[in-house]
Amino acid sequence: MDSKIFLVEGEIIVNEKKQKFSKKVRAGSSSFAAEKTMALFGSKNRLRRNKILIKEVKEVLEDGTKKRN
């Protein structure tokens, strides 16, 4: 499977406050990029999945610009 770079944007809830985030992850598909983001936040920040709200997942190019359709 080809590995692509995705920009995952959303919010995390920490101490009853919402914080926006955007994270670039390498994954094979947008759904796997969302799963990987949840796993990373869970392992590094000890957040449960119900505290992670993913708003948008979009593919980006290697230089960080948005991919054209």
Automatic annotation (TrEMBL):
Pfam families: Ribosomal_L18A. GO terms for cellular component: ribonucleoprotein complex; ribosome. SUPFAM superfamilies: RplX-like (SSF160374). Belongs to the eukaryotic ribosomal protein eL20 family. GO terms for molecular function: large ribosomal subunit rRNA binding; structural constituent of ribosome. Gene3D superfamilies: 3.10.20.10. Part of the 50S ribosomal subunit. Binds 23S rRNA. GO terms for biological process: translation. This is Large ribosomal subunit protein eL20. Keywords: Ribonucleoprotein, Ribosomal protein, RNA-binding, rRNA-binding. Coiled coil: none annotated. It comes from the Archaea. Residues 4-58 form the Large ribosomal subunit protein eL20 domain. The gene is rpl18a. HAMAP family: Ribosomal_eL20. The keyword rRNA-binding applies.
